[in-house]
Amino acid sequence: MRTKLEIAQNWLPRYTGTKIDEFGDYLLLTNFHNYVTRFAEQFNCEMRGIGRPMQTATNSQGLTIVNFGIGSPNAATIMDLLVARQPKGVLFLGKCGGIKKSTEIGHFILPIAAIRGEGTSGDYMPPEVPALPSFKLHKFVSEKIVEHRQDYRTGVVYTTNRRVWEWDEAFKRYLEKLSVIGIDMETATIFIVGHVNEIARGALLLVSDMPMIPEGIKTEESDRKVTETFVDLHLQIGIEAMTEIGIKGEAIKHLRY
Question: Which fold, 4-248?
């Protein structure tokens, strides 16, 4: 194997237990196993990749969901491996911490950009290149949020490789200085690697905790409540948005690479 494409064609099935031609044209990405199980139960379809690094499920309409794991290296891996399939659009359904007081647990965030604090994206593009979503994809998602009579926020999110930072007061002050609305571990990477690989991409983030205050830091109990209350809606909005894009057949790659 000498080319990136050859490697991706070999590795995508190996990582997911799913043949390349079994992936749909449109994909949902997540880093939570229960999103895939809920998707498979809703559409009565097979979940593949059990015991492998990534799990997938594809419904009868050709929409695929992939659990790629946690963190920016895993996000870069799936966005690289998807060059074997070249999907028409990818939407990341992730969770994030709310930074600004205007955000609350259960709010949705459609990020207009992501700050590249994770480091991984530096292996793909120089630091001055912004991490941006595909505007037309976010347009479809925003319409679906409104149809469900849900409020959402826009703004810039900060993507970090640090999983445990909530104790670090200096880092919190840095986040406040940046005026970001949320923090996660994957969005900037997905945006940058998607750009490099010419894959239209977006992110719909669910605010799952408020880590700037001690009582807002995620716990097992609080995460369970978020899952019980908001995850089904989060997943459903993603399903409807990406399904509608496929039905309309509208091109969402609005930039010439």
Answer: Rossmann fold (3.40.50)
